[in-house]
Design brief:
The protein is 38% helix and 26% strand. The chain contains 11 helices and 17 strands. It has a 5-stranded mixed β-sheet with strand order 13-12-11-16-17, sandwiched between helices. The protein has a 3-stranded antiparallel β-sheet with strand order 1-2-3. Helix 2 packs across helix 3, helix 4 crosses helix 11 and helix 5 packs across helix 6. The protein is flat. The model has no long low-confidence stretch (mean pLDDT 87).
């Protein structure tokens, strides 16, 4: 299970059995869960005072314990509803967590999974899971570097011999990109937009360099919303050049974090990384031109993993099969 700030992905027996937004809708009067995942996302920012939508994870860690438990329970129930058994199934779960998690945050994830019916709960750091999911040999005496840009955190790690040698976990990731876009549209176009629209803009025209190849260029995106001054409806056309300009500062933070990790990397592992390149995973890896920009900045080849959104979940699935062999799994 990849318990993400934006999406939760569950793999079972090598197949994706669930891929839903990490969001819960709760009835304010009864405190009961009305909807989770995609259904709750449709309600997000469309609610009345009787209903509230909660994203239980902030910056990669559990911010609302009860909502997180409801969400994990609901997702596990969805996956297991196909199997009819008399007794509750004994579940063996591997969950990805940010590499910068504190003991309290790790405990919160473990407790949530145990309350949701997990009998054997193993935890794995997300960059390690991403490396496994990409198909790197993490136990070899060679240096591999992974940059996993999720919704709440960006994880940068150098891995060798089944352990993380150097790592950095920063909160500049998908959610920050969304708020950058919201801020930019307020400042430049005088339009007020919500989180959901910002996400759509990022997917439609998200880019990090102002000059993309002709075949990569996305069509400009038309945004509609209220004018900040007059509250009249207005529309603006947003191009990928504008988005690359407004994400520039956040991407620069990622670059300096990558350089910081490389500075601390032992020279022999550094040589391996230069030879193999650096791998990008997570939803942020889908931003147009990201690998190109990083390659020019760091002078090391960057590769975007295939299906980067599912890399961490695929890695947890691989780890689940070999729980006895992998020393880096935490119980």
């Amino acid at each position: 299970m990849d318990l993400g700030t934006a999406n939760t992905v569950i793999f079972q027996n090598d197949n994706i059995v669930l891929d839903e937004p990490s969001i819960v809708a709760i009835d304010n009067n009864t405190s009961k869960c009305i909807a989770i995942g995609q259904q709750a996302k449709l309600m997000h920012e469309h609610t009345n005072p009787g209903v509230k939508t909660i994203r239980p994870l902030r910056d990669g860690v559990i911010a609302d314990f009860n909502a997180a438990e409801m969400m994990i329970k609901g997702f596990i129930k969805q996956v297991n509803s196909k199997k009819k058994t008399l007794f509750a199934p004994t579940l063996k779960i591997v969950v990805g967590i940010p590499s910068g998690s504190t003991q309290v945050e790790i405990r919160a994830v473990r407790d949530s999974c145990e309350h949701a019916g997990g009998r054997d709960v193993y935890l794995i750091y997300e960059p390690m899971a991403a490396a496994l999911g990409i198909g790197l040999d993490v136990e070899a005496p060679k240096g591999n570097m992974v940059v996993d840009i999720g919704g709440g955190t960006a994880e940068i790690a150098v891995i060798s011999l089944g352990g993380i040698v150097v790592q950095d976990s920063i909160t500049t990731a998908g959610d920050v990109f969304n708020s950058d876009i919201q801020y930019y549209l307020r400042q430049q176009h005088n339009i007020k937009i919500g989180e959901t629209t910002a996400e759509k803009i990022k997917i439609a025209v998200g880019a990090v360099i102002p000059d993309l190849d002709a075949d990569e260029e996305p069509e400009p995106y038309v945004v509609r919303g209220p004018n900040l001054m007059t509250a009249h409806p207005v529309e603006a056309t947003v191009t990928y050049q504008e988005i690359s300009h407004c994400l520039d500062k956040s991407i620069a933070k990622l670059e300096s974090s990558i350089l910081h990790v490389l500075e601390l990397t032992p020279p022999e592992l550094y040589a391996d990384i230069v030879e193999n390149g650096i791998f990008l995973s997570g939803g942020g890896a889908l931003l147009r031109g990201l690998a190109k920009r990083f390659t020019e900045k760091v002078n090391i080849q960057f590769h975007v993993a295939e299906d980067p959104l599912k890399a961490v979940a695929r890695g947890t699935c691989i780890a689940l099969k070999k729980t006895s062999n992998y020393s880096f799994l935490m119980r």
